[in-house]
Amino acid sequence: MAQLEVDLVAADGKIWSGPARQVSAPAADGDIGILAGHTPILSVLRAGQVRVVPADGGAPLQWHVDGGFLSVDSDQVTVVVDAVTEGSRSTTAH
């Protein structure tokens, strides 16, 4: 199964990095979902939840971010955020 390589970084360093099946984020004009094979994109993020479904099938990860941007190119997803106010594993199935 194809997967994404994800880097989530803030001004003070890397928050999370690893392989994922899916990434969703709060784009400026609505939530965006990224799967392997997504077309290249650069999007501004608004405040909201960034969610990552790990490639190993583990529980989804989520962080509340205060804005930033998301870049996708060749199954590499880079999320650069202004600030992360919390991080957790989701307890709900997605």
CATH class: Mainly Beta
Radius of gyration: 12 Å
Query: What is the N-to-C succession of helices and strands?
Result: EEEEEEEEE
Number of folding domains? Answer: 1
Number of strands: 9
Q: Summarize model confidence as the mean pLDDT.
A: 91
Shape: globular
Instruction: Provide the structure class.
Output: mainly beta
Could you say what the CATH topology is called? ATP Synthase, domain 1
The percentage helix is under 10%
Number of contiguous helices: 0
CATH superfamily: F0F1 ATP synthase delta/epsilon subunit, N-terminal
Proper CATH architecture? Sandwich
The N- to C-terminal Cα distance equals 18 Å
Largest sheet, in brief, is: 9 strands, mixed
Strand content: over 45%
GO cellular component, one term: plasma membrane
Subcellular location: Cell membrane
Keywords: ATP synthesis, Cell membrane, CF(1), Hydrogen ion transport, Ion transport, Membrane, Transport
Main location: membrane
